[in-house]
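Our preliminary data section would be incomplete without showing what the modeling component actually yields. Below, a chain of 91 amino acids is followed by its predicted structure, encoded as tokens that our downstream tools consume directly.
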Amino acid sequence: MSKFAKKVDSNQKELCSYAKSLGASVQYMHSVGQGFPDVIFAYEGVNYLCEIKSEKGKLNSLQVQWFENWKGQAVVVRTKEDILMLLKGEL
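Predicted structure:
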């Protein structure tokens, strides 16, 4: 697998559209690669680094390494419910 992944999970468009419908800004980052999360959501002055995975999707080795080394906030989201909980500060 390339260090510069371009593949997106099948639910990325739906989840990003949902986040936008709730008032979030969305910046796509999936082309960064090297394990960096797929998107950044901004909502009410807070930035959320989010890796989007399907219901059964798993982090690849670069993503696992990135999450283990990141000293800040970052989450994996899989569903609309995850997005809602994240933006409410419950995830």
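The first strand starts at residue 25 and ends at 28. The domain at 12-87 is CATH 3.40.1350.10 (Trna Endonuclease; Chain: A, domain 1). Preliminary results of this kind motivate Aim 1 of the renewal.
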